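Minutes, project check-in

Agenda point 3 was the complex the collaborators sent over. CS summarized: two entities, 426 residues total, and the question is how they sit relative to each other. Sequences were read into the notes so everyone works from the same version.
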Amino acid sequence: MRVAKITIQFLAILLVTLLPLSAFAGGSHSEDKEFNATDLINSHIGDSHEFHIADWNGHPISFYLPVILYTDNGLTVFSSSKFHHDNEGKEIVEVNGERFVRYKEVIYYADKFAAITDEADKSGLNFDARPLNFSITKLVFSMLMSAIVLLLLFTAVARSYNKNKMAPKGLAGFLEPLVLFVRDDIAIPNIGQKNYAKYMPYLLTIFFFIWINNLIGLIPFFPFSANLTGNIYFTFVLAFITFLITTFSANKYYWGHIFAPPVPKALYPIMWPVEIIGMFTKPFALMIRLFANITAGHIIILSLISLIYIFKTAWISPVSGAFVLFMSVLEMLVAALQAYVFTLLSALFIGQAVEEHDHH
Amino acid sequence: MVLAGIGAGLAVIGAGIGIGKIGGSAMDAMARQPEAAGKIQTAMIIAAALIEGVALFAVVVALIAQ
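CS then shared the predicted structure for the full assembly.
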């Protein structure tokens, strides 16, 4: 028992002293370039076609992900190493009869890009100048990895229930209270005893998926450091699925509340826009809440680490390390909390859609 | 740029006051009835997360506006 305690204390101290190593997650910059905190933070929070692991002697070490494009010539696949770390639209890659450039992590057709004169048109939304991009980027890679982890985890747990008829031990013993928590404290109080079972798979999926992705974003080294839940497109899809489930499982009481609320009929022209906008703002709030919480946490941690580079001295690193430790622990709480709040509010909206009234 | 920062700061004032009030009343309630502390804590965390969501709306708008 004493050996275990000493081991745990040693590991804890070792991990705490290694925490400032997450500063290397920033990738170093060569000495002649001015340190730009904004670029560092944006490159961490945003998506990218390669995993930038570290810099060695000025050479960046990256894990190159495949670029999958659908062009007029069909499906084109190549490694992102062909761009040679160019992000300014200068390196032209010629594959499969088409030529591409990459500008600020967006891939364009080379000739159409060269024809763009207006700087504002060089954004990701310029769909004429871009091929259809199905690449496995950093965030897609992280999402697939967390999906596979979840699959393996839960199928293993499910199979162990067949073999072990008594109280669950091990991994099943760890996950069962969480699953029961989602059922007893999130699903049943909000959706009701009658129809909660249909929605349990969805609620369990988003709870664990969001939680695991939040935690993966907090681990600073390869292959974990992708900030998936801090990407607004990802949270948009999750909120959209909640919206679809609420709309398609809504019964006539729900639509009755929206189109015939219990107010004098003269107020209906005011109530209809309000209620319909209300139908959309609830998933919109879900999307923004998760995105902003996770992104804000990452920005704070990265800024505190950048303090070391801004002050240009190693003496600030214990202070910075202590702040980063505090913020990281807080972010772990936020990771679980945001998963819980997203699931709770989804259950609440589904419950509002399926609830039965007797008193109307 | 500066105005975006001021906007974000104002939003944080609102969030701080709101969550402070929630925490305060939660503490009062827990002191009055210690058996209900678990439920009060859960409700407090949910309310705090919702208020923080609103404050982060404002931060996102400030980020977009600058």
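Noted in discussion: Residues 2-65 of chain B form a domain with the F1FO ATP Synthase fold (CATH 1.20.20.10).
Follow-up: revisit at the next meeting once the mutant set is ready.
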